[in-house]
C-alpha cells in the first residue's frame, strides 16, 4: 500500500510497530480530547472548534426531521450532519467518529508525522470535519494508485460532494490512468470510467441531498461559496484587500477599473497552478507527491486560509517525505521558515482577535500574510524541483535498467 | 390651542437635612430659613411666579405638555390616530447617574442612551399593515427630526412592536424642537433657552388621542420665572422630597399646586399629596455594575455584578412568581450568538429580538440593532452575584485616516418582574405620573418591576480596530505584485 512509508533514510529511529504507533496516537488523542473538555469548561479560550457546535446543532435539526440549514452558518453537505446524528444521544461521539476514521489507515514510522502531529491531533479532536475529508482523499489516492478506477471515481465524487476542493485531484488522477496515452488522443475507456463513476457518485449524493433539502442545500453548500464575503482576517494574502473591496465594492487599483475585481481573478493563479500545470508536470512522476503539492498550492493561493486547511496537505506529507530528495538540513529550514512565518501572523492575529490592538491590519496582519505567502511559494518551488528531480532520477534508473 | 402644560418641581433635602432624621423633618422648618420648605421656594409677584433655586439648593423639574391628536398639523393627525401607541425617548450619554437622587424613578429605570422609537399601530387590520404603518411613521419621524437616514436606522420587531434605535452621539436635544415645530407649527416652542439647557431627557408618548411631550430636568440651579399671563393653561406643582432614598415602594410626597392663568390676582395654592407608587421602582439596597471584561478584542464579554448593601434591611422578598430578567439592547455591530448563549447554564431562557446574520460585517447589515431578554436563575442574586453575556463584534467599516471605530452599548436593565393585583395596578394607573409607554412591561398586565439600578455610566464604549482605507491601494498593489511574481516563479520552476 503506497500509504505505508517503508523506509526512512534520514531518520535513525528504530522501526516502531503499527500497534505501538496506533496505540500511542490514540492515547495522545484521548489526552487532547480530555484536556479539550477541561479547557472548554475552565479556560477563557475554548478548545472545541466552533464548527463542531455548528455540526451538532445542524444534526439536532436533522434529528428533529428538519433541515440542517436552519442552523445559521451551516454551509456543508447534510451528510456531515447525518454522520453526527449519534451526537444527539451522546455529544462526544462525534469526536470518536472522526478519530476512528483517522485510524482507518496503516502506518509506519513516517506516519507519525500524521499520527503524532500535534496540529493534526488538535484539529481533529477539536471537532473539525477536515479529518473526514482527509480519510476520503487518502482512500482516493490508494485506489487510484492500485488502479481501482471505479472505486477511486466513486470516492472522488464523495470527496467533491463533501467539499469542493478535491476536484483539483481529478486531472492528476486522470493523467495517471493509462499514463502512456498520447495527449492527442486523451480519451480512454478507463478514463471515461473514472469520470463516469465520479459523476455518478457526486450526482447521486447531490441529488439525494437535493431531494431532501432542495435549493436551500445547493445555495448553502455550493452557491454560497461562489459569492461568500471573505472579510475576516485569515492567513490568505488576499485577506485585507478583499476586506477593503467588500466595503468599497470595487478595486483600490485604478487599472482594474470598476468591474474587474481581485476576488474574481483569484482563481486564475490558483487553478492554473494547482489543477492544470502541476498535474501536467508532476502527476506521472509521483502521484501522492503531486497531490501534496497541488493541495499546498491550492491553499497558498486561496482567498481564505485557516489552520484547518493545512490538514488537507498534511495527510500527504508522510508519503511525500518517503520519496523526497530534499536534504534533512534543507527540510528543517523549510519547516522552520513555515512555522516562523505562520507564528508571526498568529502573533498579530492574536493581538487583533483577543487584545483588539489598533493599527495592525496593514503592518501586522497583512504584511505577515505576505511573508507567509512568499515562504509558501518558495516551499512549493522547492517541492516542484524535488519531484522533478525524482522524475529525472527515475528516467536515469529506467535507462540504466533498460 | 388646547395644550395643557404641567410643570412639577421637586425640592430635594439640603445636605443638613440629609444628616438629620428625615422623619423629624416632615413638619419642621429648615434651620437655615425657609428655603428647604415648599413655600420658602416660591416667590409671587403681580406678574410672575418665581421658583427659587441655586447651586446649593437645586431643584428637579418635569415639564409635560399634553396635546389632543386632533390639534396636530393636519398632515399627521390621521396617521397618529391610526398608530395609537408610540413612544420616542431620548437621553444623552451620561456618566454615573446617581439613580437614588432622582424623583423620575419610573422614567429613569426605562430610559436608554440615545434615541429610541417604539411604534405599535393600534388601528390596522393585518400584520403587513402593522409593519408598513410602523415603517412609514419611523421614516417620517426621522425626517421630522432631520436625522439623515442611514442603514443603521432600520427598524426591527421588538417583543410585539417595532423599534428603532440610534446610539450615535451626533443626535442632540434639538430633535425635540424640530418635532414640536413640525407637529404643532401654530404654537411656538414653549420652553425657554435656559429650560433647554437643563433638559436631561425627553419623551414623546402617544396614547390613543393624546400626545404628551415630557421633558426631564434633573438639576436646576437657576430660579425659574413663570409668567402669570401665559396663553397656555399651566398647572404648577412644587413638592418636597424628604429623603434622597425613598425606601417605601408605596409612598407619598407632599407639596402644593396651583394653575395659571388664574381668575384671582393672587394664585391659589392647594396642598397636595402625590402618590409615588409606579410600575417601575428601584430595588432598595441593590445596585449593579455593568462592564466589559478587558481586554475584549473582537469578542467582548458583558459582565453584570450585583452589589447588595446589607446595611439596609429592606422588605423586598421576591415571590415565587417573580422573574429575574435582564434586557440588553445592542447596536448592529454586535452579534448575539443564540447557539452559544443557549449553552449558558445561568440562563433559564432567553429571547432575542431581531436576530441578525452571524457573520456579515457591519457595512453589509441593514439593521438598527438587536435586543435580548434573559430570564436569569435566581441563584445569580443569592449566590453568584454576577453573570456574563458573550458578544461578538462584526468587522467594522474600514475608514480613511482612522484605525479604530467606537461604538456604544447602552447598559442593560436588570430587574425583578413581579405580579401585582388589579387593585394595586388601578392605584398606579390613576397616579398623575403614570404614563402608558411602549416599554419592557408593555402588553404585560399587572406587573411591577423592581429595577436593580446601574450605578455606573449609562453606556459602555467599545473601541474596535478597523482597516485604514488610505492604505488600500498600497495593499492591493503589493498583493497583486506578490501574486504575479510568485505565479511566474512557479511556472518557471514547473516548465523550465
Automatic annotation (TrEMBL), chain A:
<dbReference type="GO" id="GO:0005789">
    <property type="term" value="C:endoplasmic reticulum membrane"/>
</dbReference>
<feature type="transmembrane region" description="Helical">
    <location>
        <begin position="79"/>
        <end position="98"/>
    </location>
</feature>
<dbReference type="Pfam" id="PF05007">
    <property type="entry name" value="Mannosyl_trans"/>
</dbReference>
<feature type="transmembrane region" description="Helical">
    <location>
        <begin position="354"/>
        <end position="378"/>
    </location>
</feature>
<keyword id="KW-0472">Membrane</keyword>
<protein>
    <recommendedName>
        <fullName>GPI mannosyltransferase 1</fullName>
        <ecNumber>2.4.1.-</ecNumber>
    </recommendedName>
</protein>
<keyword id="KW-0808">Transferase</keyword>
<keyword id="KW-0256">Endoplasmic reticulum</keyword>
<dbReference type="GO" id="GO:1990529">
    <property type="term" value="C:glycosylphosphatidylinositol-mannosyltransferase I complex"/>
</dbReference>
<feature type="transmembrane region" description="Helical">
    <location>
        <begin position="149"/>
        <end position="171"/>
    </location>
</feature>
<dbReference type="GO" id="GO:0004376">
    <property type="term" value="F:GPI mannosyltransferase activity"/>
</dbReference>
<keyword id="KW-0328">Glycosyltransferase</keyword>
<feature type="transmembrane region" description="Helical">
    <location>
        <begin position="119"/>
        <end position="143"/>
    </location>
</feature>
<comment type="pathway">
    <text>Glycolipid biosynthesis; glycosylphosphatidylinositol-anchor biosynthesis.</text>
</comment>
<dbReference type="InterPro" id="IPR007704">
    <property type="entry name" value="PIG-M"/>
</dbReference>
<dbReference type="GO" id="GO:0051751">
    <property type="term" value="F:alpha-1,4-mannosyltransferase activity"/>
</dbReference>
<keyword id="KW-1133">Transmembrane helix</keyword>
<dbReference type="GO" id="GO:0006506">
    <property type="term" value="P:GPI anchor biosynthetic process"/>
</dbReference>
<feature type="transmembrane region" description="Helical">
    <location>
        <begin position="265"/>
        <end position="285"/>
    </location>
</feature>
<keyword id="KW-0812">Transmembrane</keyword>
<feature type="transmembrane region" description="Helical">
    <location>
        <begin position="192"/>
        <end position="215"/>
    </location>
</feature>
<comment type="similarity">
    <text>Belongs to the PIGM family.</text>
</comment>
Automatic annotation (TrEMBL), chain B:
<dbReference type="InterPro" id="IPR042322">
    <property type="entry name" value="Pbn1"/>
</dbReference>
<comment type="pathway">
    <text>Glycolipid biosynthesis; glycosylphosphatidylinositol-anchor biosynthesis.</text>
</comment>
<dbReference type="GO" id="GO:1990529">
    <property type="term" value="C:glycosylphosphatidylinositol-mannosyltransferase I complex"/>
</dbReference>
<keyword id="KW-0812">Transmembrane</keyword>
<keyword id="KW-0256">Endoplasmic reticulum</keyword>
<dbReference type="Pfam" id="PF08320">
    <property type="entry name" value="PIG-X"/>
</dbReference>
<dbReference type="GO" id="GO:0005789">
    <property type="term" value="C:endoplasmic reticulum membrane"/>
</dbReference>
<dbReference type="GO" id="GO:0000030">
    <property type="term" value="F:mannosyltransferase activity"/>
</dbReference>
<comment type="function">
    <text>Required for proper folding and/or the stability of a subset of proteins in the endoplasmic reticulum. Component of glycosylphosphatidylinositol-mannosyltransferase 1 which transfers the first of the 4 mannoses in the GPI-anchor precursors during GPI-anchor biosynthesis. Probably acts by stabilizing the mannosyltransferase GPI14.</text>
</comment>
<keyword id="KW-1133">Transmembrane helix</keyword>
<comment type="similarity">
    <text>Belongs to the PIGX family.</text>
</comment>
<keyword id="KW-0325">Glycoprotein</keyword>
<keyword id="KW-0472">Membrane</keyword>
<keyword id="KW-0337">GPI-anchor biosynthesis</keyword>
<protein>
    <recommendedName>
        <fullName>Protein PBN1</fullName>
    </recommendedName>
</protein>
<dbReference type="GO" id="GO:0006506">
    <property type="term" value="P:GPI anchor biosynthetic process"/>
</dbReference>
<dbReference type="InterPro" id="IPR013233">
    <property type="entry name" value="PIG-X/PBN1"/>
</dbReference>
Amino acid at each position: 500500500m503506497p500509504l505505508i512509508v517503508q523506509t526512512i533514510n534520514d531518520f535513525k529511529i528504530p522501526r516502531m510497530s503499527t500497534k505501538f504507533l496506533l496505540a500511542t496516537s490514540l492515547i495522545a488523542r484521548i489526552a487532547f480530547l480530555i484536556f479539550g473538555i477541561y479547557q472548554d469548561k475552565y479556560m477563557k479560550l475554548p478548545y472545541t472548534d466552533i464548527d463542531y457546535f455548528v455540526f451538532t446543532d445542524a444534526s439536532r435539526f436533522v434529528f428533529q426531521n428538519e433541515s440542517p440549514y436552519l442552523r445559521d452558518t451551516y454551509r456543508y453537505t447534510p451528510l456531515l450532519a447525518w454522520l453526527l446524528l449519534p451526537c444527539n444521544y451522546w455529544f462526544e461521539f462525534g469526536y470518536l467518529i472522526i478519530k476512528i476514521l483517522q485510524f482507518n489507515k496503516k502506518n509506519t514510522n513516517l506516519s507519525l508525522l500524521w499520527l503524532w502531529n500535534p496540529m493534526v491531533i488538535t484539529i481533529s479532536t477539536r471537532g473539525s470535519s477536515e479529518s473526514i475529508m482527509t480519510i476520503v482523499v487518502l482512500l482516493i489516492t490508494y485506489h487510484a494508485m492500485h488502479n481501482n478506477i471505479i472505486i477511486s471515481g466513486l470516492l472522488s465524487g464523495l470527496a467533491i460532494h463533501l467539499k469542493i476542493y478535491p476536484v483539483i485531484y481529478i486531472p492528476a488522477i486522470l493523467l495517471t490512468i493509462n499514463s502512456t496515452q498520447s495527449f492527442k488522443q486523451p480519451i480512454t475507456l478507463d478514463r471515461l470510467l473514472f469520470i463516469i463513476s465520479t459523476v455518478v457518485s457526486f450526482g447521486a449524493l447531490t441529488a439525494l441531498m437535493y431531494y431532501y433539502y432542495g435549493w436551500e442545500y445547493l445555495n448553502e453548500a455550493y452557491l454560497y461559496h461562489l459569492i461568500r464575503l471573505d472579510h475576516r482576517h485569515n492567513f490568505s494574502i488576499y485577506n485585507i484587500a478583499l476586506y477593503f473591496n467588500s466595503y468599497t465594492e470595487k478595486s483600490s487599483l485604478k487599472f482594474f477599473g470598476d468591474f474587474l475585481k481581485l476576488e474574481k481573478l483569484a482563481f486564475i493563479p490558483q487553478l492554473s497552478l494547482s489543477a492544470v500545470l502541476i498535474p501536467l508536470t508532476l502527476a506521472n512522476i509521483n502521484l501522492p507527491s503531486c497531490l501534496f503539492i497541488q493541495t499546498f498550492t491550492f491553499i497558498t493561493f486561496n482567498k481564505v486560509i485557516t489552520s484547518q486547511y493545512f490538514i488537507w496537505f498534511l495527510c500527504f506529507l508522510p508519503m511525500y517525505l518517503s520519496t523526497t530528495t530534499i536534504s534533512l538540513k534543507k527540510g528543517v529550514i523549510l519547516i522552520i521558515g513555515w512555522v516562523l512565518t505562520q507564528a508571526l501572523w498568529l502573533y498579530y492575529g492574536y493581538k487583533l482577535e483577543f487584545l483588539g490592538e489598533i493599527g495592525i491590519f496593514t503592518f501586522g496582519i497583512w504584511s505577515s500574510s505576505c511573508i507567509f505567502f512568499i515562504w509558501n511559494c518558495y516551499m512549493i518551488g522547492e517541492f516542484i524541483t524535488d519531484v522533478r528531480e525524482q522524475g529525472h532520477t527515475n528516467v536515469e534508473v529506467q535507462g540504466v535498467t533498460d | 390651542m388646547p395644550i395643557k402644560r404641567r410643570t412639577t418641581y421637586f425640592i430635594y433635602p439640603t445636605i443638613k437635612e440629609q444628616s438629620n432624621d428625615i422623619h423629624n423633618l416632615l413638619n419642621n422648618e429648615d434651620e437655615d430659613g425657609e428655603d428647604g420648605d415648599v413655600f420658602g421656594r416660591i416667590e409671587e409677584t403681580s406678574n410672575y411666579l418665581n421658583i427659587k433655586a441655586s447651586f446649593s439648593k437645586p431643584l428637579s423639574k418635569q415639564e409635560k405638555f399634553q396635546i389632543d391628536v386632533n390639534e396636530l398639523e393636519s398632515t399627521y393627525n390621521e396617521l397618529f390616530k391610526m398608530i395609537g401607541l408610540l413612544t420616542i425617548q431620548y437621553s444623552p450619554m451620561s456618566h454615573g447617574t446617581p439613580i437614588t437622587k432622582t424623583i423620575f424613578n419610573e422614567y429613569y429605570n426605562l430610559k436608554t442612551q440615545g434615541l429610541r422609537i417604539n411604534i405599535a399601530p393600534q388601528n390596522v387590520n393585518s400584520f403587513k399593515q402593522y409593519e408598513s404603518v410602523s415603517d412609514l411613521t419611523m421614516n417620517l419621524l426621522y425626517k421630522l427630526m432631520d436625522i439623515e437616514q442611514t442603514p443603521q436606522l432600520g427598524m426591527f420587531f421588538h417583543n410585539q412592536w417595532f423599534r428603532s434605535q440610534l446610539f450615535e452621539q451626533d443626535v442632540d436635544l434639538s430633535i425635540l424642537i424640530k418635532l414640536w415645530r413640525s407637529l404643532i407649527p401654530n404654537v411656538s416652542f414653549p420652553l425657554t433657552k435656559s429650560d433647554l439647557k437643563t433638559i436631561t431627557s425627553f419623551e414623546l408618548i402617544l396614547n390613543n388621542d393624546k400626545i404628551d411631550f415630557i421633558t426631564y430636568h434633573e438639576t436646576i440651579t437657576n430660579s425659574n420665572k413663570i409668567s402669570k399671563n401665559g396663553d397656555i393653561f399651566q398647572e404648577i406643582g412644587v413638592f418636597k422630597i424628604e429623603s434622597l432614598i425613598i425606601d417605601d415602594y408605596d409612598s407619598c410626597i407632599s407639596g402644593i399646586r396651583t394653575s395659571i392663568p388664574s381668575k384671582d390676582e393672587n394664585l391659589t395654592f392647594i396642598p397636595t399629596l402625590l402618590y409615588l407608587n409606579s410600575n417601575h421602582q428601584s430595588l432598595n439596597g441593590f445596585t449593579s455594575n455593568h462592564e466589559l471584561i478587558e481586554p475584549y478584542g473582537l469578542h467582548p464579554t458583558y459582565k453584570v455584578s450585583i452589589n447588595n448593601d446589607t446595611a439596609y434591611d429592606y422588605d423586598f422578598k421576591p415571590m415565587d412568581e417573580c422573574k429575574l430578567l435582564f434586557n440588553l439592547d445592542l447596536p448592529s455591530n454586535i452579534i448575539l450568538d443564540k447557539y452559544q448563549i443557549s449553552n449558558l447554564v445561568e440562563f433559564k431562557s432567553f429571547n432575542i429580538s431581531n436576530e441578525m446574520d452571524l457573520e456579515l460585517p457591519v457595512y453589509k447589515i441593514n439593521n438598527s440593532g438587536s435586543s435580548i431578554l434573559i430570564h436569569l436563575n435566581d441563584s445569580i442574586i443569592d449566590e453568584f452575584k454576577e453573570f456574563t453575556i458573550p458578544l461578538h463584534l462584526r468587522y467594522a467599516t474600514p475608514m480613511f485616516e482612522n484605525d479604530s471605530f467606537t461604538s456604544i452599548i447602552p447598559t442593560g436593565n436588570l430587574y425583578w418582574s413581579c405580579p401585582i393585583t388589579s387593585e394595586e395596578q388601578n392605584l398606579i394607573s390613576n397616579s398623575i405620573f403614570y404614563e402608558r409607554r411602549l416599554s419592557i412591561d408593555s402588553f404585560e398586565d399587572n406587573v411591577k418591576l423592581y429595577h436593580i439600578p446601574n450605578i455606573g455610566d449609562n453606556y459602555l464604549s467599545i473601541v474596535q480596530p478597523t482597516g485604514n482605507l488610505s492604505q488600500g491601494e498600497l495593499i492591493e498593489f503589493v498583493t497583486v505584485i506578490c501574486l504575479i511574481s510568485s505565479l511566474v516563479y512557479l511556472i518557471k520552476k514547473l516548465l523550465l
